[in-house]
């Protein structure tokens, strides 16, 4: 099994609800690491294109840059915890990956390439991880 990872950082605020009480609005420099994995490399010796992964990760988190997550469409009905941010990024990346793979149906890339995990660091030492499936 091979893996590649890409990391992006964005600044955003949130105010999550904990046991029924909303905490004060505050900001973070969120660090998001996305990992793809698959059993095979393509003819060029690549698991996947780093540029494509970086572009897709940037597209998912782009609307949240310098924003209040609570006011974003994504989190209007979802508590914007680090765990939920990781899940939303993972689901968004999986959809982007499926869309890209549809263009390459007969390549090594189509053989089991998937999102392995997404890590979201909300503050130093505080990491949430989402693993699909």
Please explain how this structure is put together:
This protein starts with a strand and ends with a strand. The model has no long low-confidence stretch (mean pLDDT 94). It has a single domain (2-130), classed as 2-Layer Sandwich (Tetrahydropterin Synthase, Chain A). The chain has helices spanning 50-61, 82-101; strands spanning 2-14, 17-18, 21-22, 26-38, 67-68, 114-123, 126-130. Helix 1 crosses helix 2 (82-101). It is α+β, with helices and mostly antiparallel strands and 133 residues long. The protein is 24% helix and 35% strand. The protein has two helices and seven strands. Strand 6 (114-123) and strand 7 (126-130) form a beta hairpin. It is elongated. Strands 5-1-4-6-7 form a five-stranded mixed sheet. The protein has a two-stranded antiparallel ribbon with strand order 2-3.
Number of helices: 2
The rounded distance between the terminal residues' Cα atoms is: 17 Å
Helix content: 10-25%
Low-confidence stretches: none
By CATH, the architecture is named 2-Layer Sandwich
Portion of residues in beta strands equals: 35-45%
The major sheet is characterized as: 5 strands, mixed
Tell me the name of the CATH class.
Answer: Alpha Beta
Question: Briefly, what is this?
Answer:
The chain is α+β, with helices and mostly antiparallel strands. The protein has helices at 50-61, 82-101; strands at residues 2-14, 17-18, 21-22, 26-38, 67-68, 114-123, 126-130.
